[in-house]
Design goal:
Largest sheet: none
Number of helices: 4
Low-confidence stretches: 9-16
Order of helices and strands: HHHH
Structural class: mainly alpha
Mean pLDDT: 79
């Protein structure tokens, strides 16, 4: 269940002006490092194809944070047709994992004009 960010009333912004990360930013960086390590373990166990572990982790990281931000910002919108939270989270995680299992593009491929957004 997505609960780690939903108790706060609004998204927490990064502290771009700080010279050193705040304690919450350090906690986020530590958490991200654990995610990168978990992705590497999945690659080593052949559960994910070889690839850029940082890119794979960023895809997973931004997906869960995007959903969390949406749930925070739009939770009280009576006009948005939310699926049940557990169903939404399960579908998102399953689809992200299916994409990673298929092999995420390399960073070089992402820089290619053929993948540029119009």
């Amino acid at each position: 269940m997505v609960t780690f960010g939903t108790p706060w009333p609004a998204p927490i912004a990064c502290n771009d002006d700080a010279e050193a990360p705040t304690s919450s930013e350090r906690a986020g960086l530590d958490c991200f490092a654990k995610l990168v390590a978990a992705v590497q373990r999945c690659i080593d166990a052949e559960q994910l194809p070889p690839g850029d572990t940082g890119l794979y982790a960023q895809i997973a990281w931004t997906s869960i944070h995007g959903l969390t931000s949406s749930l925070i910002v739009m939770k009280d919108d009576p006009h948005f047709p939310w699926a049940p939270r557990e169903q939404l989270l399960g579908a998102m995680v399953n689809n992200v994992m299916a994409g990673l299992e298929a092999g995420a593009p390399s960073r070089a491929a992402l820089a290619s004009p053929s993948l540029a957004l119009a």
